[in-house]
Design goal:
Helix content is 69%, strand content 0%. With 172 residues, it is mostly helical. It folds into two domains: 44 residues, no CATH class; 106 residues, AhpD-like. α4 runs parallel beside α9 and α8 packs across α9. The termini are close together.
Length: 172
């Protein structure tokens, strides 16, 4: 059960309603759970969803790699909501079932693709150690290029924030 009240349409201020509609318009009328508590701060919710939309859909990272990174964050932060929301998308975007299953179970996946191995290694190492070794960074840079590596780093930070919002307020 949520630890804070989630704004309902009946109790929202005009600014909250505007942001609620903007998010819903982008997502087929659906307001994903992480944005619901953020509506208490409409400007935060608005800017947050804009950054999320950019990082998830408008970067040079293939969607398959973005979803892989998101699943690594979900596993690291124990976010079932995030995992459930992204596993199907990851599979649809071409991430292997065995990779998704291994991440869910906390195992190290076997990767056939160098870019997936690089994204997984970079994501896991950054989350676990708060930095990456020169070797890990070089592998990710070689596999992704500078722009995609910068975008991957930002994507990881964004989804850590999502996981924290979900976990702190017990939103499952």
């Amino acid at each position: 059960m949520a630890r804070i009240p989630l704004p309902s349409l009946e109790t929202m201020t005009p600014e909250q309603r505007r942001v609620h509609k903007a998010i819903g318009d982008l997502r087929g009328g659906h307001i994903p759970m992480p944005y619901r508590p953020a509506l208490h701060s409409p400007e935060l919710a608005d800017k947050w969803q804009q950054v999320g939309e950019l990082l998830r859909y408008r970067t040079s990272l293939p969607q398959r790699l973005s979803e892989l990174a998101i699943l690594v964050v979900a596993r690291y932060h124990g976010s079932d909501y995030m995992r459930n929301a992204h596993e199907k998308v990851a599979l649809k975007e071409g991430l292997g079932h065995d990779v998704v299953e291994a991440i869910r179970n906390g195992s190290v996946p076997r990767f056939d693709k160098a870019d997936e191995r690089a994204v997984y290694g970079f994501s896991k190492e950054l989350l676990e150690t708060k930095t990456v070794t020169d070797a890990c960074h070089a592998q990710a840079l070689s596999a992704l290029g500078v722009t995609a590596l910068v975008e991957l780093t930002a994507l990881l930070g964004y989804y850590v924030m999502v996981a924290m919002m979900l976990n702190a307020h017990d939103l499952r």
